[in-house]
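Lab notebook, bench 4. The sequencing result for the construct came back, and we need a structural model before the next group meeting so we can plan mutations. Quick request posted to the team channel:

Model the 3D structure of this chain.
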Amino acid sequence: MDTIASLFSFITTPVSWVIVQFHSVYGAIFGPDTGWAWGLSIVSLVILIRICLIPLFVKQIKATRAMQTLQPEMKKIQERYKNDRQRQSEEMMKLYKETGTNPLSSCLPILAQSPFFFALYHVLNSIASNDTIGVINERLLESAQKAHIFGAPLAAKFTDSADKVEALNSSLTDVRVVTAIMIVLMSLSQFYTQRQLMTKNVDTTVKTPFMQQQKMLMYVFPIIFAVFGINFPVGVLVYWLTTNVWTMGQQMYVIHNNPTPGSKAQAAYLERLSKSVSKHGRTRSRGERAIVKAIVAKGRDRNEYERKFINGLNKEGLAAQADGTVVKSESTAAAQAEEAAAVKRQQPKRQTKSQRQSGTAKAAGEPTSLTKSDEPEDAKPAGPVKKDNAKSAGSTRSRAQSGQRKGPQRPKSPSKK
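Done. Here's the predicted structure in token form:
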């Protein structure tokens, strides 16, 4: 037994026992010697372990957010004591103690999962070496060696020789194709998980070296998985691919429902929450109330997205309470009712120019414009117009145009001699 196996031998038996129990269930459905029975047993082992690690995952989220909040203070300490490493470390530990933050908390799920990973690796390696281990006896060992996942034996590796692969009733091509695809999927899932964290769930207002380190890890981790993946048995690749997919889905859920304050994910979440609260007039779940409660408690320390959320509720006539509930605001409701009443009042219709002129003339007591039927009879010509009369009319019009009064002129009185 090698050194790593001896370190994790205390958990080898429990891991093998869990796999055998799941195998008895799936073996009754798909057959005991099939890859489905053994592969799903490993997947179920991963799910069981990750469910048990959910409390640690919650602590990891809180620790990561706390570390992001402390980055500006940590940067100040580093600049202040850049020539005194010991004092810098002391101040850092003091800051962690005052804020109740532990940098190692962000690594808890990985550290807690490591014993199970190495135990499973040792179990599958023993199957490939035709050695019994834990509760896996000779009958189960023979069944596991017959199990193939898409043509690749459960205990085969990418680096195995052709003779070893043939001993497991498979071909080297099948093993390398299957393991290569699984390694690529494993690396891509790791990359996407880290990228999703950096692009959506990081406070964009904080620019520190910690963020640069996280971006670097986004590219380093997939390479590490690809390098070490060629030495993993197919069963271990199934285990690691499953846990990566679980982590990705779990993180997507957290980003969607409980994003980091100041991140793009929070802006999208508060926009959805604002529409939901405006539609129903209340917060509908415990998670929504927790988010609103945290925003109200911040007061003036709210970020841009949180202030926009509170202002949006006020415009809708709603007010966020300290306990996370949302109620109708009386002052805002009264203002909205008054505004609605003002809108409903009938405004006078706008009059045309002719209507305004007509109304002005009536108010001044002036006669309105005459129609043809209202013209005086003496103004109408009694008969055919003669040429002389036409000439006189033309001269009259010319005089009228020159400034004289229109109409018949008063005869001048005869001059007295």
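The radius of gyration is 44 Å.
Will bring this to the meeting.
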